[in-house]
Amino acid sequence: MAEYLAPLKDMHFVLNELADLEGIARLPGYEEFGGDMAEAVLDESAKFSSGVLSPLNVSGDRARIRWEAEEGGRVRMAAGFREAYQQFIDAGWNGYSADPEYGGQGLPKLLGAAVQEMWMAANLSFSLCPLLTSGAIEALELSGSEAQKACYLPNMVQGRWTGTMNLTEPQAGSDLAAIRARAVPQADGTYRIFGQKIFITYGDHDMSENIVHLVLARTPDAPPGVKGISLFVVPKFLVNADGSLGARNDAYCVSVEHKLGIHACPTCVMAFGDAGNFGGGAIGTLVGEENAGLKYMFIMMNAARFSVGLEGLGIAERAYQHALAYARERVQGRDISGRLPGNVSISKHPDVRRMLMLMKSQTEAMRALAYSVAAHHDAALRHPDAEARAQSQAHVDLMIPVVKGWLTETANEIAYLGVQVHGGMGFIEETGAAQYMRDARITTIYEGTTGIQANDLIGRKIAREGGATVKTVIAQMRATEAELKQAGGQIKAIGEALGKGIAAVEECVAHILAGYGDDTATVSVGAVPFLRLMGIVCGGWQMGRAALVAQARIAAGDGDAFYPAKIVTARFYADHLLAQAAGLAQTVVQGGASALEIAEEML
């Protein structure tokens, strides 16, 4: 089974031609990350991903993690993970995006997105540990006290300590207003935390010296609902005044979930103060202001939602590589056109080619969309002009649910196609195709299901602001459409398909703005189809931009076969994906009322 190889050619193309890495490298604080430095970062990440992480993907899936009851409950990782993690932090990867003040590399979000994609494609289970740590670091950087930053961030950035986010409880699920975990204030200014959290990724493991839990809980006088939630830092081991590790805190993994996929990643049930006689409550310190915990946690949540979208991209790329290699090697049947003698590889069969091109074109569209959003994130942070920062932030806010929702849903479809390309062998675990389908399934669920992302998109991101940002995006897409239509041949056809897709988005946005306030339930029935429509059309927009760049390179005399292939891929995307836009618009605009009526009668 072939190991993962980072698609560096396409990554560099998207970074430089579509996301303007050189422009990002001119922003204050990012000056060193253009050109040769960016290439070196990607090359080293590619080597680590294929040489260290990828070989552990299958073995970790088969061996799984192990929970032991000793010491109140602890987790042992699969063979090789501890060693790989040590190499990971020794190479400085854990702090790739963190503030250099605390030992981080300070990479732009754009460059970091490409690095993350590689790790996630190579070994999704492993990549979830630094993902959660990165989110915890960002939350503490922005909201923690100076004492908390000094205590935790240097070791977390280095990777000696990892981080988690603890939101979900058995009775609450996605309804954070129903959280019951308690935080009892103590005379010394600390709090004793009591309660249980579920689905805690890397809640316990044996790869780091300490684990820093960020925990949502309620103080005794907290108001009900989400307005009464506070955020606390609760380390696995308490930290002494000199920075050394002290006593074991009363925070334990009491069991692990037995999951469909990501078998090498521990998903823990955590007990704070409820795991027996281990200390009478977990000791924690308040982050920021009391009752403002949800605001702080959403710092982690938004970063995690973008990263989960990258997980979808990584799995899609890995599944495509796997399916393509198998299709080229598997000889079965004759060429239906009669042009090739004897039996041929299945990659020559029309339907297999269709499936492979669906995998390839959507993966490339996903990459282009995600990286472009990452570039806007960097501009929102570092652009010297305040208005430009605000515009970029509005773009990021609009597109985060699309990146999270569309990329992960599409990754599931691509992983499914990967199994189908293998035929009967895809159903056999030994070929490896099934693992991508199993691993992909969680990505549409955690950090907010696709329905949650879609409701956020139509409600907070479109209806609440009167569609201002989405209309700006539509105008940008229309400009690309005009450029495409000015060209001939396949380029013009891409523009025509994109134009129809944009019209579908416009129709749906008008429907959302007209009906959301008066008939929210009916409009919300179309939320997920609209999110899919936005993903497909915005992906088509990026593929159209890619085709224009490729055409210009060809016209300038560049003979690299990459460029005509990019145009063909963009045309395929237009014919097979953008063509779905009108049907999705029909569902969004017309399907809400009938769905609710049927549900009223039948459910």
Automatic annotation (TrEMBL):
Pfam families for this protein: Acyl-CoA_dh_1, Acyl-CoA_dh_C, Acyl-CoA_dh_M, Acyl-CoA_dh_N
Stored InterPro entries: Acyl-CoA_dh-like_C_dom, Acyl-CoA_Oxase/DH_mid-dom, Acyl-CoA_Oxase/DH_mid-dom_sf, AcylCo_DH-like_C, AcylCo_DH/oxidase_C, AcylCoA_DH/ox_N, AcylCoA_DH/ox_N_sf, AcylCoA_DH/oxidase_NM_dom_sf
Superkingdom to which the source organism belongs: Bacteria
Domain Acyl-CoA dehydrogenase/oxidase N-terminal: 82-159
Enzyme Commission number(s) from the entry: 1.3.99.41
Domain Acyl-CoA dehydrogenase/oxidase C-terminal stretches: 291-457
Cofactors required: FAD
Reactions catalysed according to its record: 3-(methylsulfanyl)propanoyl-CoA + oxidized [electron-transfer flavoprotein] + H(+) = 3-(methylsulfanyl)acryloyl-CoA + reduced [electron-transfer flavoprotein]
Acyl-CoA oxidase/dehydrogenase middle domain segment(s): 165-272
Keywords of the record: FAD, Flavoprotein, Oxidoreductase
Group of enzyme by EC: oxidoreductase
Similarity remark: Belongs to the acyl-CoA dehydrogenase family.
PANTHER family linked: ACYL-COA DEHYDROGENASE, BROAD-SPECIFICITY LINEAR ACYL-COA DEHYDROGENASE FADE5
Described function: Involved in the assimilation of dimethylsulphoniopropionate (DMSP), an important compound in the fixation of carbon in marine phytoplankton, by mediating the conversion of 3-(methylthio)propanoyl-CoA (MMPA-CoA) to 3-(methylthio)acryloyl-CoA (MTA-CoA).
Protein name: 3-methylmercaptopropionyl-CoA dehydrogenase
Organism phylogeny: Bacteria, Pseudomonadati, Pseudomonadota, Betaproteobacteria, Nitrosomonadales
